[in-house]
Amino acid sequence: xLGFLNKMNGDKAIWAVVALLALFSFLPxxxxxxxxxxxxxxxxxxxxxxxxxxxxxxxxxIIYGVHRIPTHFFKGLxxxxxxxxxxxxxxxxxQGQVIDGANASRWIRIPIVGFTFQTSNLAAVVLxxxxxxxxxxxxxxxxxxxxxxxxxxxxxxxVIVLILPANFSTAGIIFSMVLLLCFIGGYPFKYLLGxxxxxxxxxxxxxxxxxxxxDLFPNRVDTWMSRIESFSNPxxxxxxYQIEKAKIAIATGGIVGNGAGKSxxxxxxxxxxxxxxxxxxxxxxxxxxxxxxxxxxxxxxFRIVVVANSNGTVFGKLLVLGxxxxxxxxxxxxxxxxxxxxPVTGQTLPLISSGGTSSWMTCLAIxxxxxxxxxxxxxxxxxxxxxxxxxxxxxxx
Amino acid sequence: MPVTEKNILTRLYxxxxxxxxxxxxxLVKLVSIQMVEGDKYRxxxxxxxxxxxxxxxxxGNLYSDDGSLLATSxxxxxxxxxxxxxGKKDFEENVKPLSDALAKLFGKTTSHYQQLLRKAKAxxxxxxxxxxxxxxxxxxxxxxxxxxxxxPYKGGLIIxxxxxxxxxxxxxxxxxxxYERVDENGYYTRVGLEGAFGEYLRGIEGKRLKQKxxxxxxxxxxxxxxxxxxxxxxxxxxxxxxxxxxxxxxxLGQLEKYNAEHGCVIVMETETGExxxxxxxxxxxxxxYYERLNYAIGESxxxxxxxxxxxxxxxxxxxxIDTNTxxxxxxxxxxxxxxxxxxxxxxxxGKITAAKAFEVSSNTAFAKIINNNYKENPEKFVNxxxxxxxxxxxxxxxxxxxxxxxxxxxxxxxxxxxxAWMSHGYEVSLTPLQTLTFYNAIANDGExxxxxxxxxxxxxxxxxxxxxxxxxNPSICSKETAHxxxxxxxxxxxxxxxxGHGLYSPNFSMAGKTGTTQKNYVSxxxxxxxxxxxxxxYFPADDPKYSxxxxxxxxxxxxxxxxxxxxxxxxxxxxxxIYASSPLVDEVDVHDAETKNLxxxxxxxxxxxxxxxxxxxxxxxxxxxxxxxxxxxLGIEVEVKGNGKVKKQSIAKGTDLKKVxxxxxxxx
Lengths: 397, 668
Prior knowledge:
The complex is a heterodimer. The relative contact order of chain A is 0.16. Chain A has helices at residues 2-6, 12-40, 45-67, 73-95, 119-137, 145-163, 168-184, 189-212, 221-232, 240-253, 277-310, 314-338, 358-373, 375-378, 389-396; strands at 98-99, 102-103, 107-109, 116-118. A two-stranded antiparallel sheet of chain A has the order 1-2. A two-stranded antiparallel ribbon of chain A has the order 3-4. Chain A is mostly helical. By secondary structure, chain B is α+β, with helices and mostly antiparallel strands. In chain B, strands 2, 3, 4, 5, 10, 21 and 22 form a 7-stranded mixed β-sheet that branches. In chain B, strands 13-12-11-26-25-24 form a 6-stranded antiparallel β-sheet, sandwiched between helices. A 3-stranded antiparallel β-sheet of chain B has the order 1-8-9. Chain B is extended and about 150 Å long. Classes of the chains: A mainly alpha, B alpha+beta. Chain A binds chain B through residues 35, 38-39, 135, 139-142, 180, 183-186, 188, 244, 247-248, 250-254, 264-265, 267-268, 282, 287, 290-291, 294, 297-298, 301, 305, 308-309, 314, 317-318, 321, 325, 328-329, 332, 335-336, 339-341, and chain B through 1-3, 5, 7-9, 11-13, 15-16, 19-20, 22-23, 25-27, 29-31, 33-34, 37-42, 44-45, 48-49, 211-214, 217.
């Protein structure tokens, strides 16, 4: 056991934050499960708890496994994973899971385990590593936009386009994160502006096409429109239901909250265990709980910055930021939705929500950050081990 | 532009700073929701998620005087079928066995139910009626049936429960037991005993705060109810189900025999005023009789000849006549102003005493007595009636008591002929119960008791309230007058000339007065003339235990319409059956001379057989049976010759028992 602990390398503070958040996550997940059991009529409360525990345990396994991978291996891995991810995304989109008549094909079912798997989460991590790799590669060059189209923007474009029809907000976040990483990684600013412009143009075309010919391909344009409309529309609309309940939950929480499991609004918020979990946490644990949770995410942000800072390589820095910032960003988006700073998106609260496999991708990202924070793993080897193909691949990139 | 670690970090700090600001914005918004908009949303939370629920209390039971149930609350279940929620496979697999089971339970054919279910499925009916008003055991059985045992979502079973009031006696006294309904405005419709004692039976509604947990689902908040529901008290009424049963069937039989419009019977306990039975039957369009309206309490009508008792009491009290005052019935016609009072017997009764006038029910005699003696001072007559509380409602807890009409001189409708007509029960109006209350007062030597329907209010075994007899008027007339009219009432039945003599039975005594009232006398056409036949009285005549009134409206004239013929038999039947079932009356029945002898003999035998003997006893003079049993009990063999009493015993008394083996008795 001690040996195992000793093998846990990397930033101790990140380990601690992740462990605390994971432990804390049992409370809101257990509380929200009563709604699923007694109102929706699915499973048992203990069942949800056990399922959550298993997911977290496996997540921990992922963190542990990933953090022992030498950082520079991720270069090669991302290159290999990219086509796989694109195929998975294509498959996901093609099978067309329909929710409420709108296309919400975000999940594929993992055959044996039975868990559903949101491919866009994996795609996001892989894409960020890929972009980090590219940015590292061009760090000393002055590149033209033309040169970067094929190696950088084509994969980005493909991933985004494959996610967009089913999951606008994730596509948007991934796109923003890519831009952010490019900005940090020194990609020319003027080109970035061009890309943003092109992105907006593409989106407009997409939406207009979807509106004009609704049956052409499955999409959720109507859902996005209504959500954005209800956010900007001051009058009460049907879509305000969730956000109103979330605000009621926050308002009744008070300073110290109603107490664990005593949330009332969890019964009315359809996504009480994922999208609106922050509102439920504030209802049960009050402003105090809300602030502490925020503090942990900011601590994570701080540690990510510290790890990026202390990592000796440009790839290491960009890798940490590329996979780390989205976690914090997603957390902030989730909380912003609950307090009505942001339209309803359907982003989970990383490490807290019982979002199933999406938490594994967070764990993957955490593992990568920990790997990068590991002093032993970060220095590139002097000599390339010819027998390890990954070593060869990563070294050349 | 080469990328260096330094410019990466610079840009990172910018990004991290922006994220931090975003985080701060979230927290500020969080606080602002709590502090600024907090009150609004907290109020919304209360409005949307909390609600006060009322918990219906259990309504108390209504009992008869001996503790038999008259009305109680039970759950009834209605079963419906949601054909849409059931899967096609489930449906096809189970429709046959389910139909079989339903058919078996409800006694219809399997195909009936199969058709019903299939039709529901085809029409996508989500609310098809399967069975209505099941009791608990049937409901439990239905729940276990194939398909239905899969529950509401897979099996399509819809259950609606309601609390209904059951009357174990059925149609008997249905109207008198009554009901109580409350509408959405909280207005109560109160009928019969249920309505009258609603305040005791109802109980107090409980209150429970509940929290909404989903569409249509509410979860109780906290351990306790805000207000505990309090079950209604049980009410023990004065109704005796045996007497009620007797009265109901006696009345029903007579109504059917005479094809009458409606009728009622009330039986009242003389000493206490407790109403032991109250039966109201009316004819429906299909010619059957049901408890419809509470005629006994609600229907005020001209009492006719039964009112002669009131007139008689007034006249005797004022001493304007005595029972032996002779009155000329004027050949059955007595003219007052332009109208003529007629006797039912054509040609009248000649010159008769006031007593006989009462017994034969002479209209002319009464019109003459009252008109002659009070025409100068009609107020005196009316005042006397009013002193006997005849113009007042009895003030019953049962709603809808008919208002009595006793006109005062000068009132609208009063005329010169009023006295003459009032004397024999016209131009006045009383309900059957009001008339009975007066008759009961006479039976009680003048003490007028308020009719009572309630004995006790109980909570389980604990008595909450006990009701004692209530006196309306301790003395409506002198004891002397009461005794005089008691004799008259007795004579109506016992004397050969009495109008009620047809009811006479040597076995038990009754006292009463007949009444045959013309209902629509305004029309002179005898074809449309309708009658009300009444008999009011009490029994046994000398020691009244119960008083009773029978009123039958509109008997078929071709069969008969006189009070004695139509209503009298109901009275007699009620009296006879109560008599037969009452131990007190049995005792009276066997008290003749012969039984006295038997009794004495038994006492002698009993004394003799209880003595301890050492020598042969004297059995001479004893009945043979008694002598044999005594001697054989002593171990002596007995030989008997002849019948009757012991004339001679072969071994003399006083002989030592040890020496005796056999004794021969000669009987006379």
